[in-house]
Amino acid sequence: MPRIPIGSWAEHAVNWLRDHLDWLFTLITKVLNGLYDVIHTVLSGPQPLLLAGILAVLAWWLRGLPAALLTFLGFALIESVEQWGPTIESLSLVLVACLITVVVAVPLGIWAARSRVVGGALRPVLDLMQTMPAMVYLIPGILFFGLGVVPGIVATIVFSMPPAVRMTELGIRQVDEELVEAAEAFGTHPRRTLFRVQLPLALPTIMAGINQVIMLALSMVVIAGMVGGGGLGSSVYNAISSVDVALGAEAGLAVVILAMYLDRMTGALNQRVSPLGRRALAKAQAALGGMKFLQWRPATSVAMVGVVVLALLAGGMSYFGQSDGKSGGGNGRPISLGYVNWDEGKATTYLWKEILEERGYKPKVQALEAGPLFAGQARGDIDVQTNAWLPTTHASYWKKYKDKLEDLGAWYDKTSLEIAVPSYMKDIKSLDDLKGKGGQFGGKITGIEPGAGEMKILKDKVLKDYGLGGEYKVQESSTASMLSELDRSMHAKKPIAVTLWSPHWAYDKYKLTKLKDPKGSFGSGDSLHLLGRKGFAKDEPQVAKWMKNFHLDEKQLTSLENDIKSAGDGHEQDGVRTWLKKHPGLVDKVAPSADASYAKGKDAGKAPNIGYPAWDEGIATTYLWKNVLEKRGYRPNIRNLDVGPMWTGLSTGQVDVETDGWLPVAQKQYWDKYKKDLVDVGPWYDKTSLEIAVPSYVKGVKTLDDLRKHKDEFGGKIIGIEPGTGEMKRLKDTVAPAYGLKDFDVTSAGTSAMLTELDRAYHKKEPIAVVLWSPHWAYSKYKLTKLADPKGTWGANNQIKTLGNKSFPKKFPEFAGWLKNWKMDAEELGSLEQDIQDAGKGNENKGVEKWIGDHPGIVDKMAPVK
C-alpha cells in the first residue's frame, strides 16, 4: 500500500498558515502577551506571604477555616523552597488560558446542546483536540507564535477546551425536559429559558467541566516549559534534563499544592454560585453538629474587605520598590539568552547573564532543546546563544537558519565529538573495536538529547560507516541522564559506551577512553560559536562587540563548569560569582565599561535611591547624576514618582534624595509638612519663575489681566500640568482669584499632555494658555510670551534645591558633598534638556552622554575625586 504523506500535508499546511496569516498570529501574540503581563504583574506585585494571605482569605470564604490554614501553609512552603516566582508564572498562564477557554467553550457547549448538527460536527474535533498527544501542540505553536508564554497558552487552550464544551453540552441536555416545556408553555422567551432555567440547573455540571479545564491547563502549562513558557514547567524541565532530584521534588510539590488549591476552590465555588450547591452545602453543615465552627465562612462582603485590605497593604509595600534606573550602560534593556542544557552552554550563558547585569542590562535565560532554540532564535524570540557547535555538530540547523542568524565568532577552539568507554575496557580503543561486541554493551550506546547535532551525526553517519547500525541501538535521553548512567556503570565496573565531547569535566572525574575515529565520521572538530538573531549586532552594537572579543581556554571553562555544578541547580549565578572572585578583572576585560577610565569615588558600590517628577529639569538632572555616579562606581536607582508620593518617600527614607525641590514657594506645602524628616542639601539653580504663557502670535495678551479679558478667545481654558504640583495649587488658590480667572477650566493631564497640546495649537496658530515655568526648553523651541503678574500672586522666585532624607548625608557623605557644591546656569540646563529631548523617550542616557561629551571635564567638576 502506498504511503499516505499526511505528515507532509500537515507541514505544508502549517507553513502556508505561517506565511499567509502572520499578521493574525502577531495580533494574537500581542493580545495574549498583554493579558499575561497584566495578570502576572498583579499577582507578582505583593510580597509572597501577603498574596498567600489573600488566597487564604478566599479559601476561608469558599471552604472554611481548615482550608484557609492549609492554603497559607501550602503557599508558604512554596516560598520556602524558592519556587514562588515560577508558581506565580504558572498560575498566570493557567488563569489566562482558562479565561479564554471558558469564554469560548461555554457558548460552544450551549450551541451544541441546542443543535444536534453542531454537536455532531464538534464531537470529532473535540476528540482530536483531547486525544492528540499534548506535546504535539507545541510544534505549530513555536512556528506560529515563537518561544515564550504564547505558544504555551495557545496549546493549553486547545488541549483543555474539550471538557468544558462537553460538560456544558451535557449539563444543558440533562435538564429535565418537562421544566423546559413548562417554561415554554408560559410563553418564556428561549433566551430567558436558557438563562433562568437551563443554565442554573446545569451549573454544577458546567463547573465540573471548568474544574477539569483548570486541571488540564495546569498539566499543559508544565509541558509548555519546554518551549520557554517559564514557570514550574521550566523548573520541572530543568530537573528532568539535569536529573536533579531536589529540584524535581520541590517543583513537583509546588505543582501539587497549586493544583490542589485550584481544584478545591473551583469545586467550592460551585457551592457558592449554584442553588443546588448551596442546598447541598447547607445539608453538609447541618450534619457537622458541634464542629460547625470549622465550616463557618465569612460573608462575601467581609471576605472582600479582607482581600482589599491585604491588596492595598501589598500595593503600598511594593510601590516604592519600583525602579526605572539600572547601573551601567545597558539602561535596563532586556536581552534573551537561550541554551541547550549542556555544561559549557549553561556555564557560558550564566556567565554572560552576570556580565550583562553588571553592565545594566536585564538578561533572561531559557533552557531549550536544540531545535526550538534555533527555531526561536531565527524568529527573533532569542537574542543570543553561546553554544553553537560549528561547522559539524549543528550543521543541519545552521544550514536551515543561517540567513536569519549572525555569527558573532568562536570563543573556544577546537572541540571534538566522540564515543567514550571506561578505561577498564582494555580491548576497545577505536570505533572499529565496537563491532561484534554489542553483547557486552547490551546492544546500546547511551546518548544525549535527541535534537543534538552529535546524535544526528552518530545515527546518520558513524553507525553506518563502522557497520554498527544493526548491532547497536542509540538510546536517546539527556546529557544529565547519560552522565548518571555513566556514573552508575563506572561504580559497578560495567561496560558502557556513551556519546561525549571535549572539553568536558567527565574526563577529569572518570578514567575514560576516547574511541578513535580513523574514518573521520564525526568530522574534524568544531569551534564553539556565539550566534545572534539577525539584526542583533545593529540593535546592541556594544554587546555584540564584547561577544566577538570573548574567549575562554579549557582551564577557565572547566573550572567555571565545576563551580556552577558545586553551587547546584537554581544557584548557577552563585557559582558564576564564586568563579569571578577567582578571576578578578575578567568582567572588565570581557565587557570593558565606558566608565572604566573614570576614577572611582570612595563610596563606590553604594546604591542611592533618587526620586524625580516627570518635569524636564528633574528628568535632566536626575539622569545626569545617574550617569556621573555610575562613572564614579556607584549603583544609583532612579524612580519616577508624582510629587506627593516622592515627598512621602523622602520623609520615610524610601527615597534618599531628589534634585527638583522648588522652594520657598512652589512646594511650600510639602516642605512645611515633611521638613522635620528632610535635609536641605542646597540650591543648584537660581532664580526660577512660575507663569502662564501664551504664543507670541496671540496679540493683546501680555498680562494675567489681559487673559481674563480674552477668555472666549482661549475657550475659557488653561492647560495645566500634574494636579499635585505646587504651581497648580497656587494657580487655583491664589492666582485665579486675584485675576478673576476662577471660571476658567484648568486641565490637569500632566506636563507631557500640556506640551503636546501646546505643540498642536502652536502649529495650527491657535490661541492657547499653558502653565509653564522658567527655566524650560519650550521657550527655546517656541516663541512664547510670559504673562506678567503685576500683583505678584505667583510669589517670590524659587530656587531649585536638592533635598534629601535626614539620614542622607550620613549614608552618602561623598555624594552629599558633591551635591552641596553643584551649580548649573540656564544655558547648561537648557542644553542638557534639549539633548535629552533630541535623544527621545527611553534614551535619556544617550542624551546625557552627548551632553557630557560636549562639556569636557564636567564629571570631575561635579564629582571631584582626590
From TrEMBL:
<dbReference type="InterPro" id="IPR007210">
    <property type="entry name" value="ABC_Gly_betaine_transp_sub-bd"/>
</dbReference>
<feature type="transmembrane region" description="Helical">
    <location>
        <begin position="49"/>
        <end position="78"/>
    </location>
</feature>
<keyword id="KW-0472">Membrane</keyword>
<comment type="similarity">
    <text>In the N-terminal section; belongs to the binding-protein-dependent transport system permease family.</text>
</comment>
<feature type="transmembrane region" description="Helical">
    <location>
        <begin position="134"/>
        <end position="159"/>
    </location>
</feature>
<dbReference type="GO" id="GO:0043190">
    <property type="term" value="C:ATP-binding cassette (ABC) transporter complex"/>
</dbReference>
<keyword id="KW-0813">Transport</keyword>
<dbReference type="Pfam" id="PF00528">
    <property type="entry name" value="BPD_transp_1"/>
</dbReference>
<keyword id="KW-0812">Transmembrane</keyword>
<dbReference type="InterPro" id="IPR000515">
    <property type="entry name" value="MetI-like"/>
</dbReference>
<dbReference type="InterPro" id="IPR035906">
    <property type="entry name" value="MetI-like_sf"/>
</dbReference>
<keyword id="KW-1003">Cell membrane</keyword>
<feature type="transmembrane region" description="Helical">
    <location>
        <begin position="201"/>
        <end position="227"/>
    </location>
</feature>
<feature type="transmembrane region" description="Helical">
    <location>
        <begin position="301"/>
        <end position="321"/>
    </location>
</feature>
<comment type="similarity">
    <text>In the C-terminal section; belongs to the OsmX family.</text>
</comment>
<dbReference type="GO" id="GO:0015226">
    <property type="term" value="F:carnitine transmembrane transporter activity"/>
</dbReference>
<protein>
    <submittedName>
        <fullName>ABC transporter permease/substrate binding protein</fullName>
    </submittedName>
</protein>
<dbReference type="GO" id="GO:0005275">
    <property type="term" value="F:amine transmembrane transporter activity"/>
</dbReference>
<dbReference type="Pfam" id="PF04069">
    <property type="entry name" value="OpuAC"/>
</dbReference>
<feature type="domain" description="ABC transmembrane type-1">
    <location>
        <begin position="87"/>
        <end position="266"/>
    </location>
</feature>
<feature type="transmembrane region" description="Helical">
    <location>
        <begin position="90"/>
        <end position="114"/>
    </location>
</feature>
<dbReference type="GO" id="GO:0015871">
    <property type="term" value="P:choline transport"/>
</dbReference>
<feature type="transmembrane region" description="Helical">
    <location>
        <begin position="239"/>
        <end position="262"/>
    </location>
</feature>
<dbReference type="GO" id="GO:0031460">
    <property type="term" value="P:glycine betaine transport"/>
</dbReference>
<keyword id="KW-1133">Transmembrane helix</keyword>
